[in-house]
Amino acid sequence: MNRMIAFAGILLAGLLANPSLSDEKPHLWPCAKDATIDAQRIVVVCTQILTESFTNGTWAEDRYLAFYYRGAAEERLAKYDRAEADYRSSIKRVPEFLAPWLALGQMLEKLGHADATMSALDAMVSAHPESASVLNNACYTRAVLNRQLDVALRDCNEALRIAPDEYYTLDSRCFVRFRSGDYANAVADCDAALRKRKDLATSLYIRGLAKIQLGYVDLGNADIAAAITLDAKIADTFAGYGVKPRP
Prior knowledge:
By secondary structure, this protein is mainly alpha-helical. The protein has 12 helices and no strands. It has helices spanning 39-56, 63-76, 80-93, 98-110, 116-127, 132-145, 149-162, 167-179, 183-196, 201-213, 217-230, 234-240. Helix 9 (183-196) runs antiparallel to helix 10 (201-213). It is elongated and about 60 Å long.
């Protein structure tokens, strides 16, 4: 679940999409994190799915999603205690699933608990200290939020110790280093990611921004253009994170 995040508001323009509901899980379609669906309706449907699952033993592997979706709907209804309980139930079942950790942290911050999102990421990493994907998710999320970049770098480094050839983690570390102003090493990490996957639009885009910061404007703009060819919305995605090409 390398990039399976479900941010809200300004954070989640492109980093996180809702967990996909495939054709194999039509029973979950009405129970989804979808702001266009009436929140109370989502709660009712997700509750029905969970009740049937626990009664008949069906869809046990999907309970974590139903709890997460119901929690998100309950949060929309300002039923924060119920939302917290459902987020925690989702986390308990699949601790490496990032979306409820973030949703819980962001909700608690909204309710006045400072640094709850960072604490949620810390708890997720503590629950899976040997999971390269969890460490990578925590690293990238801190970079998106532009918070605790030193911790983000540590998480990426640890993920690469566990899985040295994972291009997504090199891509994440590239972004962390860009955020930190370490442009030369950002370029090096994006280079390494692109050697493993040449069509990785995020690495192309951040490498382009880093090259511009280093004074290689033409080369940087070429990378940015190549990234936009691969992903037409990538500039908007990173603009949502507060990252834009230098004028």
